[in-house]
Amino acid sequence: MNSVRSIEPGAGGGPSPGRVWYTSYGSNMYLERLACYLVGGRPPGAARGYPGCRDRGMPAASVPVEVSGAVYFATESPVWGGGRAFYDPGAAGRVLARAHLVSAGQFADIAAQEMYREPGADLDLSEVLARGRAVLGEGRYETLVCAGQLDGLPVLTFTAPWGIDEVAWVPPSAAYARFLCLGLLEAGAWDAETVAAYVASRPGAAGYWTARAVGELIHGSGPGGLVV
Question: Rounded to whole angstroms, how far apart are CA atoms 13 and 77?
């Protein structure tokens, strides 16, 4: 199994680099799903497609990581139905995630597509690198976060401007939960039992999904076993 890289919190510092670790904690952990943001396309189970990045190359590397904070599900996704994954870096806990080594331009284009903006413009990363956080808008993925550094490059992601206790939690759909599981398994650091227990215990999923039901999604026999 691949070794998990533990990321300690802290700003990236220094000038904007040419490459960054785009760190996904949601469906983009799965490379097939991420490819739709990079080269364009519509992932299975999604209600919309994506135009892709200016640079359509796949990540130079993808590694399993753990970062400080918590993942929870909230709002209603028009793409998947059900709750979307969000990251609160200030909450207690550890997040299982996957860091993709991409160009700064690719990170900007991925972020734009998540923000329902047209890709094609670079992001000014100076604030998020200096402060660890930069709010670009009030939308649900318009807040940039630097979760630390990995091999001398910043670990960047995006989330909502609110905290975990400032919004109602919403259970994720079966299709969305399955992509999260597939991405974590593909990373090669966690087994199916660990992944199922992790996803089922996230706020929003807990009390609705059981670890057994999430395990059935992984093995393609779900979405049975919901707690309602």
Answer: 33
The pLDDT of residue 223: 45
Q: Which residues of the chain have pLDDT under 50?
A: 222-228
Distance CA 84, CA 86 (A): 6
- CA dist 20 and 1 (Å) reads 24
76: left (phi over 0), alpha (psi -120 to 50) or beta: beta
Q: Between β-strands 19-24 and 153-159, what pairing exists: parallel, antiparallel or unpaired?
A: parallel
Backbone angles phi, psi at 212, to 5 degrees: -65, -45
**8-state DSSP, 83:** P
Q: Using CA atoms, how far apart are residues 106 and 121, in angstroms rounded to an integer?
A: 10
* pTM (2 d.p.): 0.91
Cβ count within 10 A of residue 48: 12
196 Cβ neighbours under 8 A, 6+ residues apart = 181, 211, 212, 214, 215, 218
Least Cα distance to 181 among 211, 149, 154 occurs for 211
Q: Taking Cα atoms as reference points, which of 9, 24, 48, 12 lies closest to residue 187?
A: 24
CB atoms within 10 A of CB 124: 13
d(CA 224, CA 174): 9
Give me the residues paired with residue 97 across strands. Answer: 65
